[in-house]
User: What shape does this take?
Amino acid sequence: MAYIDIIKDKARADKKTIVLPETTDKRTLIAAAHIIEERLANIIMVGKEEKIRDGAGWLELDLDKVTIIDPENTDKLDYYTNILYECRKHKGMTEEKARDILLSDYLTFGVVMVKAGDADGMVAGCCHATADVLRPSLQILKTAPGTKLVSGFFIMEVPDCEYGENGLFVFSDCGLNQDPTSEELAEIAASSAASFRKLIGANPVIAMLSHSTKGSAHHPLVDKVIEAERIAMERYPELILDGELQTDAAIVPKVAKSKAPGSPVAGKANILIFPNLDCGNISYKLVERLGKACAYGPMLQGIARPVNDLSRGCSWEDIVGVVALTAVQAQE
Assistant: This one.
């Protein structure tokens, strides 16, 4: 069974409510219809009901079981306005400005719905930049308890692959933090371990990647990864984690024996922590395109409630997958 099918079964077993605010994009409409048909989640769409219904009719979609909320007509506008005001009044937010934002910015409206408990999570980004999705999420939902950093990851499913967790990997950070410090890399590793347990259900084995393995090269870039490994092991001693490791030493047992004998991670890694965004983003796209892998994400980790970003080049199928993953993230 494909990984996404396992996730969909988990989503069906404990249905959550996910808000989709980008209702002017036909990919969102198509995805919503399929999510309802597959019984993956309850869906709330934010926007003008007439426009959404017209779009569904034009696309020959059944959205009868979708809940549509127009910010201008909801009886909860005052309640949501107060939530936004209370969250941002220390930054100069007024009640009038909060109301104006909620009426014009559907992403912020969706995040406030999550904050209010009227939705369990939000998925957006098919027609907005990551910063547009992340900004209201951090301003209103904040980071999760005990977490200092929000980061992005992909779940990679590589076909016919003997490495990782039967071909499954978490790649972090591939979409958010451009040049993380050693402390930030340690935080990304800890968050990725929690995401791996939640979404894959296996024991995380974490490799801090570098162009060097155990002193084979000397450079400030290598030093950053070595320090990240030290910090991570000091703060999270329960993790199975090692570095610095080259990719082949991290995932290939034969190479691991010669390059990193005695490492608890080498040859067994299923989480790959990249030293910067260039490495992460380039690597996931190479694996996806040349290795014909399925890349699920970018997923966000470290936010107090589940909010996930989409690539602006995503398909409606991608939206369905990320909604299913978000629903599972929302399950206790």
User: Anything to note?
Assistant: The mean pLDDT is 93. The first strand starts at residue 17 and ends at 20. The chain has 13 helices and eleven strands. The radius of gyration is 21 Å.
